[in-house]
Amino acid sequence: MTEQNAVLDDPEPCWLIPPGSGYFATDLDTIPDLPRHTELIDGSLVIAGRQTIFHMRTLRLLESDLAQKAPDSFEVQRGMMVTLGPKQRPEPDIMIAWASATKSSHQTDYKPKDVLLVAEVVSVESQVRDRERKPQLYAAAGFKVFWRVEEINGRPVVYTYELDPATKTYVPTGIHRGSLIASWPFPIEIDLDAIELPGN
């Protein structure tokens, strides 16, 4: 049997064909062989694309800098899920949650009431989700602050938003190049130029 035929003869993963009712948030903890960082958006599984150097290094800087500055009452998480509803379980790139919400080393998600800030680093395959659908979901869940990080001319640019409680939508509060300065949920100052990227 050739290698090509062996691949064709491999059974399809059980999760490849969704049930008629779509997937539920609780399914993500039980589906076997599900790729890492698979999210649930509107009842559909979203498989993460390949990571770029920009994406990884930007996340590393944000996570380490926020974790160093965060008071003990907060916890900075990278790649943890938040369950927003029966068919919504996204995985923000960065999340700031109450430290008291971490209950177990086996915990796989947080609840909306525990989350203060979420951030997404946009990649080519995630543009629509990160610019449109995820902000809608995060705003509906009541997350007070949302950050979106874009690569522009080879450097990170952070777009910051705050929730308008009357309309349950995000309003822009700033565009940050070179440095990111914020006062909530704790004083934050991040040197965005500290990210070392090829060609810069």
Provide a descriptive summary of the structure in words.
With 200 residues, this protein is α+β, with helices and mostly antiparallel strands. It has two domains: 43 residues, no CATH class; 145 residues, tt1808, chain A (Alpha-Beta Complex), CATH 3.90.1570.10. It is built from three helices and twelve strands; from the N terminus they run H-E-E-H-E-E-E-E-E-H-E-E-E-E-E. It has a six-stranded mixed sheet with strand order 3-5-7-8-9-10. A hairpin with a 2-residue loop joins strand 1 and strand 2. The chain is globular and about 50 Å long. The termini are far apart.
Number of domains: 2
CATH topology of the largest domain: tt1808, chain A
Number of strands: 12
Q: How would you describe the shape?
A: globular
Tell me the distance between the termini.
48 Å
Count of helical regions: 3
Largest sheet report: 6 strands, mixed
Identify the CATH class of the largest domain.
Alpha Beta
Q: In terms of structural class, how would the helical and strand content be classed?
A: alpha+beta
Order of SSEs: HEEHEEEEEHEEEEE
The CATH architecture of the largest domain is: Alpha-Beta Complex
